[in-house]
Amino acid sequence: MTRKDTTVIGRREELSLLRELIAPPHKESHVLLLLGDPGLGKTVLLAEAAREAEAVGMRVLATTGRESEQDLAFAGLHQLLRPVLDRVARLPTRQAEALRGAFGLSDDPAPPDALLTGIAVLTLLSELSDEQPLLVTADDAQWLDRASLDALAFAARRLESEQLVLLAGARGNVPPAGFERDLPQLLLRPLTRPDAGLLLDAQPRPPHGRLREQVLAQAVGNPLALIELARVIATDPDAGRRWTAEPLPLTGQLTALMAAQYVTLPPAARSALLLAAAADSPDATTAIPGLSADALAPAEAAGLIRLDTPGPRFAHPLTRSAVYHAAPFAERAAAHRQVADALRDQPDRHAWHLAAAALEPDEHLAALLEDSAAQAQRRGGAAAAARALERAAELSPGEPDKARRLLAAAELALAAGQADWVRELAGQVLTLTSDPDLRIAARLDIGWSLLWSNRNADAFDTLLSVAAEASPRLPAIAWQATWMAATVAHQTGLPEVCAKARAALDALDSRDGPPPSAEERPAGRADEYRIWIRACTDPFGDRADIVPRLRRAAGGSLSDPGTFGAAAWVLDETELAVRVLREALSRLRAPGVRGASGGVLSALQWACVDSGRWDDALAAAREAGDIAAAYKMETVAGSADLTTAVVAAMRGDHDQVAPLLARVRAAVDTSEYRGFAARIWQTAGLAALAQGNYVTAYAQLSRLFAADGTPLHHHFSYLAVADLAAAAVRAERHLEARTSVERALARVDPAPGPRLEQLAARARGLLAEPDSAEAHFAAPMADPTGDTWPFERAQLQLDYGEWLRRQRRINDAKPLLVTALETFRRLGAAPWTRRAESELRACGVTVQAPQGAPGALDGLTAQQREIVILAGHGLTNGEIADRLFLSPRTVASHLYRSYPKLGIAGRRQLRDIIDQQVTPRT
To answer: CDD domains under this entry (predicted)?
Structure first.
């Protein structure tokens, strides 16, 4: 810092770290979360950082969370960006509209898309930092509204090469929502005894002797407590005699101290200070009569409040809390009514302040809050809308309106991803009403919330019960509940759970009559749900009926392309799945549609992995991870991490795999989500295979099947059957594996589809005796459908080619090995590329590496590889940034760092490099 660090006593290391982040040159972005108990100095450190930033020529944008504005969607973000709102017009059109919609400045009635709003914030901050290095601070982030937190967290996770530093301070030891994943943290601790003594001695009238020791003991190193206790001793030396020897809880100390100062103020000053505490917004206080500088002067003199240009600000958030709660409810209510009267031109705040003053039911006020909820929902603030409806329900005089509003609040809490809150709200509906339709809808919400809470067993029982009860009267709810129950069945992979979900489908079919035949046009959403339920419960069975039904339905107008596309993915209609899921995603990215894209992205990323679109899979996984963080979707986040891990394993990025799998294990209960367990073992085994650790690979992959062939998961276990065989052969466990594989394959339909047939043929060829292996290898090669899964096809070609070479059939082996090598190089599967090259050399073929630097694309990071490929296909930096949810500056930085690794001078040569990677010369 340019000033002496002693201005903040006891925080030398923290100030040094902030100095490093802020000091020029500003070549890359930095994010840091300051965490710690109230009073430890987070606000002071942020203020010091802001002063230092301005001193070195940085622009500073700041926001402060306010407890009273937690329910006002995007209030914190608006405070942050208000000085630069004129720059919104320069953003890309969709981003500008999203940000205007978030701030209530758009004529479009649709709510802004949360993801697009986050991209707009990222782009705006990036462009500002291009003009001038930028510091962004968010103090008391724990009180920022959720929509603002999500937008800031999105930007924080995407910052890389901007001239930007983002600092956020929050109470406690846990980051605020959205900031939990992979962001640097600095946990503030209480001051050491020597530093606490220095700070105490630096006060205008420091205590001495016994009183000094008493203050040090009771403050326990909290800087704010030291300052406030010293002030009390200075004004009332006898106060020390009234304290007990044991320290009170810290928050209680400060609250008592600040409240004591409040009650000694003149009545007019107390009234004015209470008005400021009730308003809790400097810009709002300017419109409130009674909040004059003269009225607040005694409070300012006491150090409780500061008067500056926007309006009065409390010296510390605890001061506001202490003042507010020191007043009896009647006085607080009167203050809120006075604030509400002054804010009639701000309907949301007007309604909330009236609600804060209400004790009795009031239908007019409940209706105002319901209108406020609608406004919040249109701005994309689902959580704020849910809170408004919850309070409206509390104020509703009649039980029907109360139940209706609680149910609507539960639906919005669901959209906000707050499963516990959904369960609480829906539970109140069940307690309150006997209306059967409302009760069934509430129980459906509870089933959803249990599923989101990773409580699969409870969710499944609830959903089946809802389906059975709703079936005669509410068919839409019955189908939705059964569809969700089937999702649980697929996630668990337990045979008994799949059987119960299938029985629920049979019950619906017996009520509605048989489904249309495969030759008829499907019956709409019910048939789409029916296909999903059948696919989830038996992905390899009865394909002669279900696959034609799926393909025929794809030719019509789909009511739920997300569910339909996911069914196509489960049924290995992979190209159809990619097409339909992309269509579904384009709908869900439209302005106003939020959150629901998490499940679609999960299916799409796996379909892209299967079909060899690995960079698209990584992009989808990154987007899914952002949505999961915003909506607290742990399974969506886990699936995104697994996708990233499996691509890393196949590409030989070994260092990435273990941390990603560890994160999945920590987030998801694999005993309930056996699909995750199977994917984890498959990915770990694949990574071990890629590294040549065959014994380890076999140990991990063999976890996918019991000794009797029972699969760990009825779907995903079978997708690893060929890799299990490959590991077994190289670990010299082929006899044991042969028995296990045959027992496992005996449990599925004899015609499980071309994908599993190809995998099974490769497994049997690897495990067979030499004289019978070729029949297994050759059979799927005759079916071009196998090319749908290029990595699996290339593995088959590699193993078949290796077998042919060992049989001295070199000319037969070469074409297979060349084709496999082309595929592996195109995918960037470096370990398998090396194996194919080695096999070709053993056949006497001279294998030439692609032109460019040694290793070419294999030497890039996963993100650099994505950006290089997109740039090589002609996309601009802005278009790449929009697709990958980065800033254009970050894209440019990655390209700049990639060129030397590729051995090229610039962008124009990328197309040639990519073409040479796809089609190697042999």
So the answer is: LuxR_C_like
Reading the block at residue 606, the tokens are 């796996």
Query: Sign of the C-alpha dihedral, residues 240, 244, 247, 253?
Result: negative
- Give how far the C-alpha of residue 698 lies from the chain's centroid of Cα atoms, to the nearest Å: 33
Q: What is the 3-state secondary structure (H, E, C) of 425-491?
A: HHHHHHHHCCCHHHHHHHHHHHHHHHHHCCCHHHHHHHHHHHHHHHCCCCHHHHHHHHHHHHHHHHH
How far is residue 482's CA from residue 463's CA, in Å, rounded to a whole number?
7
576 in Cβ contact with 541 (< 8 Å): no
Residue 25's contacts (CB-CB under 8 Å, 6 or more residues apart) are none
For residue 176, the model assigns a pLDDT of: 86
| Distance in angstroms between the alpha carbons of the first and the last residue of the chain | 60
In this structure, the dihedral spanned by the alpha carbons of residues 893, 898, 903 and 906, taken in order and rounded to 10 degrees, is: -40
Query: How many beta carbons lie within 10 A of that of residue 525, not counting itself?
Result: 17
Q: What is the pLDDT of residue 114?
A: 76
Tens of pLDDT, residues 254-278: 666 666 778 889 999 999 999 988 8
Confidence of residue 284 (pLDDT cuts 50, 70, 90): low
pLDDT exceeding 90 applies to what percent of the chain? 54
- β-sheet bridge partners, residue 135: 60, 165
Torsional class of 167: left (φ above 0), alpha (ψ -120 to 50), beta (otherwise): beta
Amino acid residing at 379: R
Q: How confident is the model at residue 245 (pLDDT cuts 50, 70, 90)?
A: very low
Rounded CA-CA distance 868/292 in Å is 60
* The model's pTM: 0.74
d(CA 702, CA 277): 63
- CA-wise closest residue to 724 among 754, 756, 699: 699
Q: Is the per-residue pLDDT at 251 higher than 50?
A: no
Q: DSSP state, 105?
A: -
Q: What is the pLDDT of residues 560-591, one digit of tens each?
A: 888 899 999 999 999 999 999 998 887 765 43
| 80 touches 145 (CB < 8 A) | no
Which distant-in-sequence residues (6+ apart) come within 8 Å of 233 by Cβ?
A: 205, 207, 211, 215, 239, 240
Rg of the chain, C-alpha, whole Å: 32
Q: In whole angstroms, give the CA distance from residue 861 to residue 814.
A: 31
Strand partners, 185: 33
Non-local (6+) Cβ contacts of 298 within 8 A are 265, 266, 269
Q: Is 23 within 8 Å of 136 (Cβ atoms)?
A: no
Angle (CA) 339-342-345 rounded to 5° is: 120
Q: What gap in Å lies between CA 526 and CA 528, rounded to an integer?
A: 5
314 in Cβ contact with 305 (< 8 Å): yes
Task: Show the tokens assigned to 707.
Answer: 């000794």
Element holding 32 (H helix, E strand): strand 30-36
**Contact assessment for residue 122 and residue 390, using Cβ atoms and an 8 Å cutoff:** no
Amino acid at 844: G
State the SS3 of 128-147. Answer: HHHHCCEEEEEECHHHCCHH
- Which residues have C-beta within 8 Å of that of residue 757, sequence separation ≥ 6? 751, 779, 780, 783
Residues in the chain: 922
Q: Quick one: DSSP state of residue 638?
A: H
Please name which of 603, 673, 677 lies closest in space to residue 643, comparing C-alpha atoms: 603
